[in-house]
Amino acid sequence: MGKDVRVQKQHYDRSRNLQDYGLIDNSKNIQKVINSFKYTIEYSIENDELNEDNLAAVFIENIKANGGGVAEFENLPKMNLSKEYKAYAEVIRNTSMYETKQVYHAALLELEGRVLNSKINNNEKHVLVDSIVYMLEFDDMLGELDSQYNTTYSDDCDGWWSCWGQCAAGVIGGAITGGVAGCAGVGAVFGTVGAGIGVFFGGVNAVTGAAVGAVSGCVVGGLAGAMGGALTGAATFC
Question: Which helix (H) or strand (E) covers residue 175, if one does?
Answer without folding.
Answer: helix 166-176
